[in-house]
Amino acid sequence: xxxxxxxxLAIPLQANIRNAVxxxxxxxxxLVAIVSDAVLGGRPVIxxxxxxxxxxxxxxxxxxxFMARLVAAPPDDLIDAAGTGxxxxxxxxxxxxxxxxxxxxxxxxAVAALELALWDLNAKLAGVPAWRLIARKFGIDATPRMxxxxxxxxxxxxxxxxxxxDELRRYADLGYRSFKMKIGGASPAxxxxxxxxxxxxxxxxxxxxxxxxxxxxxxTARDYGRxxxxxxxxxYEEPGDPLDYHLMHSLADGYEWPLATGExxxxxxxxxxxxxxxxxxxxxxxxxxxxxxxxxxxxxxxxVAALEANDFSxxxxxxxxxxxxxxxxxxxxxLGGCEAYPGIFAPVGGYTPDCQLDETGITPGDxxxxxxxxxxxxxxxxxxxxxx
Length: 388
Ligand code: MG
What we know:
Layout: E1 3-12, E2 28-40, E3 43-50, H1 59-72, H2 88-95, H3 106-126, H4 130-138, E4 148-151, H5 160-174, E5 179-182, H6 188-202, E6 208-211, H7 218-228, E7 236-237, H8 245-254, E8 259-261, H9 268-277, E9 286-287, H10 297-309, H11 324-332, E10 338-340, E11 356-358, E12 361-363, H12 379-386
């Protein structure tokens, strides 16, 4: 078995919204397809994946380095020991040849997209949903049901409070019971009014998290912490720069409710440093690293192991990225929950129609792999990439 071709397509995100730091209107995502010479049902088996939301496509990096290295590799450098599928760890080693350590930026997303496409390909070869293959490989007794919250609560021009409440009500009507909203993009007084408006929809403080997207310095982070502490919100996310472990540690000293961070850490070494220096608290704080931004599932597995070795629980891990890949990984690894972006970040964000949402969580459908082919808004891009 070998790779015949690898393709990449930069696709735009449908998201004319902003958080405290960025607007998503210009963001793109790399959709990749790894075409194998295996054939099922008369068609070549193709592994599909993308890197995650909130960054930009990596077409240049992919074509010049990572896709080129995979295509040039001898098949034995990519095949698993049984010879029945591809070995994602071996593939990452091939992709990372001549790459210096550290400086994990966009290359972590590019490698992740390809590594995850191999997981999708393997699951399709095995005829199982990706979560089932992931659970088997990582030795997890997984249940295909994952607690989920609707992430949104963005800033809108004009009637921001009313539109925020309307947005969260729409999510509630879809069946979501927990929510996350943005803070830090308005004055503290305005943000507190927004939180109050959102709490009216959420119904209970442990159903509402807030996300500052790394906006605050330590003083502002503490000021916001003091203002929201009496509310007892579900968590307070990325108060400061994601690499400012001193800020997290200092904030954790005085803020009793859960803090969350990790979506902008792209390597296990970064997570090691968060564990050592960030003051994160076992049994309380939330880790949000995103496998589709951080070299894929192999590196993610090492992050999970590092957390468990330091007395953190899988239930504290809620990967960033409200999409099918994150859902399958959260289920397969038995993590604490996942997020959803109902109605935004299409065609990458959102779940396929065969996913079932109820009061207890979301269940992925039975399609082999990550099920991306079942996502109607993604279908035209997959057709463009795969020539169907
Ligand atoms: Mg966030």
